[in-house]
Design brief:
The structure is a homotetramer.
Chain A (H helix, E strand, L loop, with lengths): L3 E5 L9 E5 L6 H12 L4 E9 L5 E5 L2 E4 L2 E6 L7 E6 L6 H17 L4 E9 L9 E5 L5 H6 L13 E2 H12 L3 E9 L6 H15 L6 H27 L3 H7 L1
Parallel strand pairs in A: 2-7, 2-8, 8-11
Antiparallel strand pairs in A: 1-3, 3-6, 4-5, 6-7, 9-11
Helix pairs in contact in A: 1-5, 2-4, 5-6
Chain lengths: 255, 255, 255, 255
């Protein structure tokens, strides 16, 4: 196998499409968002490319006994009253620093091939605490993009994210800019501890405003409710544990 | 030395052979099975290829003072009343993610060269606890293979193995499928803590049914008995230790 | 993206320039020094090269919402009454051993392109304790350079730095020498625990003597004062903690 | 810099030379032995090759202020009444698995260039305890070599070293054999915890018998005496600590 093998699964004509990337990352916000988008627009979606690479883990996933080699996938989506989309998803990031550059370059090549000049990288930004109001923080490749994104509800902050943006999302901004793409990274706030469907919804709602598609959030909300239950149980356990901690008096007794 | 050097040790004509891979992994199930197969069919086996690679650890093994460079080996086996075999064994997996792709590609090249179109990757699947009944769990490259394997006693489960299959076994499925091979991975259940000859036997028995060879299990059973002794001693020590743990009363006394 | 991409941002004619490197390292001494130099000589500085590489982390930094791809930068500085400078800065070192060789080779290529034959690598040498007098320790590519540097106040010690010099600074000496450059590494003593503007000043003062430029230290001194406050608070906390440690008597009481 | 750069420092005609390798490893036995050999035969030695590589750490060592880039060195030694030698030394091994293959290949190329067909890799084999009698354990590339080495006092054991031989010493055996060299690895027993000049002497004495040179051991014995002092102090400290451990009675008193 070569370092990179791209399977052209289907050819689809798209009109000025936008590439939307949702690979795994903080709180799985980006991948949840991209997968939900594809589920809701399933009737309009076609798998067009599979990207295999030695930069991915040497692994197959297995479902009902049938194995599938690790890859990233790009779907073409013809949105009825909105912009056409190329949606990039997958179960893995590259395994090395170098690999992120290799894969992002491949993704940009495919975006170019389909005539895309705009990119949206979806992800999460960790806050370290549980969240009530889900802000969407942004970063862009060109200053000129700030205003229209702010109008759509994206927040730009002086020094955030403090550590920069790493992986494919970061490089879609960095390498994308060098190749003439207009890229925005939309990062939903998330605790960073748990898979976060609410943060994914916040990101998708911004994207709806920007790109003119409309999706239902019922299944995503159901997953959010399931996560709420998990969080509730964790908090209960924590309270219980605090009550079980021996006090000074207990300790004296043992001594 | 090049990244990959393949020594053609001998040439053997095989009739529609099946490649059987047994490299080290969980519970050494795959390598135990492949080595037992070669020992039992020694009279019919010929070493045909040695695969050296910079992806292997930079190491020689030493036996009676004579050093041998780390490599993988492929034996041709002409089974009297069964399918011809190519058996792949060795002491090491590749040392990097990338290396698994490189080595698996080399193994597939050799399988192709000998006219093999079917592959069996042998291994173990960890259960985390000691086992009485050794089920053999399967994964296949093509859905059409499920039925005949189920008839041979292989179990296919909805979400197992949960983490997928990594290393050469996984890539024989994934890369093999991309090159037109029919691959099955047969994974014997095993605790994951110990070398497990019983699990290797369970895997071999399935393979016997599928490929029509017959082997004796005496030496494998002897190794299983030795492992039982080891397990027995570990359990005894654990019980002893539990008895030695000071009780609350003991602690009070010290205080 | 290729392993290395060099953007020629501007062309500037320099007269026998000296390359001054200040990438991140111990106590951030080198990068503080290089950045201060550029701030103080801003009117005379021109960004001439940006160096992008797959050896850098796959990352963008974000400021006020606008992303910038990780790179190293080289500025041309025409110093009024001193030697012309090429100042090399950046936020990151290479991420692999191999990468340090790749990047240093690129930096030497650019130095050569601008006609530089002398290099100064700036950095810190860790002492493991807080420092009052900031000595500047040196290392050179050619014995003939020792005397003039000693005259400028640089100290050369028998076995220091004991572990040698790693990263780009080390390779500017080692690879530079192989390509005919005269290189000196100037290392300010620093505790190694904190960002150290005082050590950066000590290094710059030596460089002033050697190269004939003159800079103001007000902003660097302000940063040093801020660090003093931080150190003060840490020491206070440590003392407080020591007072809180239970004495033998306390422990007896608990028992 | 290329992945590998070999400087031809001098050309020397040798008569059927033997390459002796002593790079750092267990107990520094190999490097101590090679360095002692070069010191004692200094009058007959000429540095002929320096090997630089991106596989070495990106580092310079510094002595009296002058930096030297990490490399390996090969000396030609014309021994008056013995076999001519090529002695390979250096301060570092390769930093990656792959790098060991790259460097060993380079060393074999140079051995070939000087007409060597026999190689001796010197090293230590860890025993895990302090040693009185320093046996020298061997491994060879060809069974035919066993007898003459046994006559010279080398011990060959059934399963030793148990974990095989890694790094350049191992690959001189493994890759050397593939290229037609006769290689022996001579490993002095050593605790594995400390630099061990006595083990280095044991290895050199075997080599003297085999190759017909004669060296004085005074300086090596002095270093051994220094190490004895270190060991003595460690043992003293350990005994002291044992005496300081509180007994059960002490503990009861505190409670």
């Amino acid at each position: 196998m070569d370092e990179l093998e791209i399977d052209a699964v289907a050819e689809v004509e798209l009109d000025d499409p936008v590439l939307v990337e949702g690979l795994p990352g903080v709180g799985h916000v980006g991948s949840l968002a991209a997968e939900h988008l594809l589920e809701e627009l399933e009737g309009e979606s076609t798998l067009v490319r599979r990207i295999y690479s030695r930069e991915f883990p040497p692994k197959v996933s297995v479902e009902d006994g049938v194995a599938e080699l690790t890859c990233a996938e790009i779907y073409a989506v013809s949105v009825p009253d909105g912009r056409d989309l190329l949606v990039l998803t997958g179960d893995h990031q590259a395994q090395t620093n170098d690999g992120h550059y290799v894969l992002t370059t491949a993704f940009l090549d495919i975006a170019e091939e389909f005539g895309a000049t705009e990119l949206y990288a979806l992800g999460g930004v960790p806050t370290g605490e549980l969240i009530d109001e889900y802000a969407v923080v942004g970063a862009v490749s060109h200053e000129s993009m700030l205003e229209s994104l702010e109008d759509a509800g994206v927040e730009f902050r002086e020094d955030e994210p403090a550590g920069g943006i790493v992986g494919v999302s970061g490089l879609l901004l960095g390498l994308g800019e060098r190749r003439g793409f207009e890229t925005a990274c939309l990062m939903g706030e998330t605790s960073g501890y748990l898979v976060d469907p609410k943060s994914a919804r916040a990101v998708l709602e911004v994207l709806e405003t920007l790109l003119g598609f409309e999706v239902d959030y019922e299944t995503l909300d159901e997953r959010a409710d399931e996560m709420e239950d998990v969080i509730g149980k964790i908090q209960e356990m924590e309270q219980q544990q605090q009550m079980d901690v021996p006090t000074d008096d207990d300790l004296r007794y043992i001594g």
